């Protein structure tokens, strides 16, 4: 890794950069109807967003996790753009940070291949330097996915931006400052329990912390 001053800014994907929860929840619930199982409520599913898919299904139907995951992974790639869109101001913020000299990466619980397909489909690929998913190693709040994203960027990290306490605790474990957005999964009250450095309704204040690099 470079010994130069750190330039890495990491972002969670779903619920942070992209308003994608309706499509995720719809595909999650599809698994139950596909297998003829009773489905949990939307609120029950939403509360678990940010955890790995198999862990989420384990909470509701532990005997059917393999079939439910297979149904989700067949359904979601065909439906992930039904409603998903970048949150307002995301593209402008990413573009401004790139122009200021920062290196930007996604660090998500999604698998890397699916995360890259999603980012590409939404037209965000040209604004990010790397997309890192969680592939067979510990998920957030463990910092592994953040460390791998920074290694791919070749720089140290400055901020982790997320919408769940899992994102924030992973950022803290990686030694980064943390920025919580309230437009995603967890409520402001829940996010506050993780004591982020910033708790904001959008990304505007992030730019005030990151002036152009010399």
Explain what the structure shows.
By secondary structure, this protein is an alpha/beta fold. Helix content is 43%, strand content 14%. It is built from ten helices and eight strands. It has a six-stranded parallel β-sheet, sandwiched between helices. A two-stranded antiparallel ribbon has the order 2-3. Helix 1 crosses helix 4 (65-79). The longest helix is centred in the first third of the chain and has 15 residues, at 21-35. The radius of gyration is 17 Å and the shape is globular. The two termini are 20 Å apart.
Features:
alpha/beta; six-stranded parallel β-sheet; two-stranded antiparallel sheet; 8 strands
Number of helices: 10
How many strand units?
8
Spatial order of the strands forming the largest sheet: 5-4-1-6-7-8
Weakly predicted, low-confidence segments: none
Helical content stands at 40-55%
Structural class: alpha/beta
Bulk shape: globular
Rg estimate, integer Å: 17 Å
